[in-house]
Predict the 3D structure of the following.
Amino acid sequence: IIFIFSICLVFLPGCASAQPRKSSSRTSPAQLPPFHAIDAQRLREGGKLLIVPFSAGPGVTASDELDRIALRIVQGMADGLQEAGAPFEVLSAADAASAELIIQGRIVRWTAAERSGSWFFKKRRQSISVEGKIMDRTSGEPLLFFVFEKSASGMAQEDLAVVAGRDLASGILTAIGLE
């Protein structure tokens, strides 16, 4: 019995590793940097930019509150791009038809006001995680992908969304070499 057991110990691990493995040639979002520019040169040229309010991602419940958070992210991004002097003209929804570039994204995680810290000095901590892309409207080709998370304590959710939007704008500009 000991002999059979030792044979199993020797051969079973080898058999398990001999099974076919899935190809890892496709790049998953987790393998990309937070801001991955595909065509930085095109983005440096700027143009008319439409920022579509982010939608609820998988596992995130769509609600009026989430819609307000999404609009505040758009506001933060637009403010951040404008203040940085970026070569983009951020369009309103009324001018969407003239957009050359489109930012689309989704909120993939949103934690609202969790308590953290010691039992006596607990602070409200919330976070927001988004992913998305900038696309060329004419070709539909993606020009940049992003995955981003922002956390803060002691800040209203809508204020956190504005700060996250500004940080997203800064990350985009850094990724394309404009900041």
